UniProtKB/TrEMBL annotation:
Residue ranges of every copy of the DUF1468 domain listed in the record: 13-171
Transmembrane segments: 50-69, 90-108, 114-133, 140-162
Protein name (database record): DUF1468 domain-containing protein
Pfam family, one: TctB
Domain of life: Bacteria
Organism: Devosia pacifica
Keywords: Membrane, Transmembrane, Transmembrane helix
Length: 176
C-alpha cells in the first residue's frame, strides 16, 4: 500500500494552530489567579483564554495528524473543492455564512438584547443552511421546528454560560 503525500497546506496550518494553541495555553496559565483574595475560580482572567487555547491545540493537532497521514478534506469528502476552485454550493454556503455572521455581529449584537438576537441568528442560519443543502431529507416543517428548538436552547444556554459561569455582562441584560 502506497503512502499518500503530505498535504502541505494542512500541515502548515495545523502546525501554526497547534503552536498558537500551546502558546496561548502557556500564557493563560501564567495569568494571575487571585488565590490570595479567595477569588471564585470561574472569575480568574486566564480561564476563557485557557479554554479557547485548549480547543485550538486539539483541533490544530488533529489537522496536523490528518495532514501527516496524507488525508485531506477533499480526499475524504470527494467534492473536488480546492482553495482556488469552488463549486456553486461552496460559494452559496460561504455567502450565507458571511451574511449571517456580519448581520449578527455588526448590525444586531450590542444594539438589541442578547437572547432574542442570538436566537434569531441561530434560527436563520440553521434554516438557511438546511434549505441550501442538496441532500436535505427533512420537510420544511421539521427544519423550522428543529431550528426553533435549537435557537431557543442555544440562546439561553449561551446566555447562562456567559452571565452565570463566566460572569460576563451581555448586551440587553435580562430582558425576560
Amino acid at each position: 500500500m502506497s503512502r499518500l503525500p503530505v498535504a502541505r497546506t494542512d500541515l502548515a496550518c495545523g502546525l501554526f494552530i497547534t503552536i498558537l494553541g500551546a502558546g496561548a495555553l502557556v500564557e493563560s496559565l501564567r495569568m494571575p489567579r487571585f488565590e490570595e483574595r479567595n477569588a471564585d475560580p470561574f472569575t480568574v482572567p486566564g480561564l476563557t483564554p485557557g479554554f479557547v487555547s485548549v480547543v485550538l491545540l486539539i483541533l490544530g493537532a488533529a489537522l496536523l495528524l490528518r495532514a501527516l497521514s496524507g488525508r485531506t478534506a477533499t480526499s475524504q469528502i470527494g467534492t473536488g473543492v480546492t482553495i482556488t476552485q469552488w463549486n456553486r454550493g461552496s460559494v452559496v454556503r460561504t455567502v450565507l455564512t458571511l451574511a449571517a455572521v456580519l448581520t449578527y455581529g455588526l448590525l444586531l449584537f450590542g444594539h438589541f438584547p442578547f437572547v432574542p438576537v442570538t436566537a434569531a441568528f441561530i434560527f436563520a442560519f440553521t434554516v438557511g443552511a438546511e434549505l441550501i443543502a442538496p441532500e436535505r431529507q427533512l420537510s420544511l416543517l421539521q427544519v423550522l421546528l428543529g431550528a426553533a428548538v435549537l435557537a431557543i436552547a442555544g440562546a439561553f444556554t449561551l446566555h447562562f454560560v456567559f452571565t452565570d459561569i463566566f460572569l460576563v455582562r451581555l448586551p440587553g441584560g435580562r430582558w425576560w
